[in-house]
Amino acid sequence: MAQNIYDDEGFFAGYATLPRSVEGLDGAPEWPTLRAMLPPLAGRRVVDLGCGYGWFCRWAASEGAASVLGIDLSARMLEKATAHTDDARITYRRADLDQLALDGDVFDVAYSSLTVHYLVHLDALLTQVHRSLVPGGHFVFSAEHPVYTAPSAPQFVTGDVGGTVRRVWPLDGYLREGPRVTNWFADGVVKQHRTIGTYLRLLRDAGFTVRDLCEWGPTDEQVAVVPEWSVEQDRPMFMLVHAVRSD
Amino acid sequence: MAQNIYDDEGFFAGYATLPRSVEGLDGAPEWPTLRAMLPPLAGRRVVDLGCGYGWFCRWAASEGAASVLGIDLSARMLEKATAHTDDARITYRRADLDQLALDGDVFDVAYSSLTVHYLVHLDALLTQVHRSLVPGGHFVFSAEHPVYTAPSAPQFVTGDVGGTVRRVWPLDGYLREGPRVTNWFADGVVKQHRTIGTYLRLLRDAGFTVRDLCEWGPTDEQVAVVPEWSVEQDRPMFMLVHAVRSD
Lengths: 247, 247
Description:
2 copies of one chain form a homodimer.
Chain A: H1 9-15, H2 19-22, H3 31-37, E1 45-49, H4 55-62, E2 67-72, H5 75-83, E3 90-94, E4 107-112, H6 122-132, E5 133-144, H7 146-149, E6 157-161, E7 164-171, E8 178-182, E9 189-193, H8 196-206, E10 208-216, H9 220-225, E11 238-245
Parallel strand pairs in A: 1-2, 1-4, 2-3, 4-5
Antiparallel strand pairs in A: 5-11, 6-7, 8-9, 10-11
Helix pairs in contact in A: 6-8
């Protein structure tokens, strides 16, 4: 079972202060790139895996989706999500994505934002997503980038590197896959580190073809507005993937 | 035009001391993984892009390849390669892979070991490789991994990281693609840093489907024999790719 950290009171309160919590999709700098990977949603049946507050579900409905199912493990998140909409096309379901079962051929588009790196059984989830999509259906997702999840001490450090004072990302353990415990709004948040090669193999073995993989960084325009994002050029935090059910 | 560093006298002398130069394919720890990506070569027409001393060309012939063309920019390397074989199925050609032209549908398998990260015009090379392969033909290659090529100071450093003394790889500039100048057997060796996302996009746009992408690390057995390889678990040096001409 996946850790239900979003129902931790302290975590939930901290997470609520993030720009992406307050402002929704527009508070997430990677959203324009992720959005560009999505097919038009008008008339489509959409599922959002790890829907959180439901920002994406409401956006998908506003784009004309025929139906939107939001799934999340956190009761607190779903309570917020439910309170924010009375659109009959949107439904929410509480479920552990690590043990999810989905019907076959019921969605045109699956979406997931910054969720899959929490899952222990990503292979099983991908099998479920694949069967739930119609042939040619789209799976667009983001995850924390492997160079972000890998290190034993995942914070930038500044010091003498090669004779010059530099701010660098202390990469280690990249090929040692498995759990990583970090303290982010709460102690003991557990993430699963996987390499890009493993993500690609899991997708292939589940029957997906990868159309695009973006190691996300901010544009110069975004850095001009939010200068602290410039560090993302040194060490991408997000990986965005557009995959298609190919068999 | 690609830099012809392998014809630099000092570089050539230094490179000649590497295990992979002295022992050939068996001196390259990633070779078993790369070999496993290759289809059977018996009766196939094979091209090796950046063939160096010709170790792979001779191995391909020993596997029963119908013909093997080795291409390299370095006259010194080709001189060695030519001196090592009198197999009529093997031919060598001196050419700059950054300006290469190949005939259409003439190869079943293209191979390249640790060469493409030197190329400025990888998009053009991939177009040539694609056209030179028969439909369904294989392109198996290795390159220096982007986390290896990215840093401004690409050497492990040891120091206080997160309150503990650790040996880490000082990652920076991962998303800043372009030339990197390093001093490796000679000053001013120029490599081209590209992200994994960019490699995947260039392959897709050239008409390839990626079957596998391996961020290579040594097995426990290899580390037992050569303990210094254990650092490769922290920061992979090599990326291995198996792509197929899909259109």
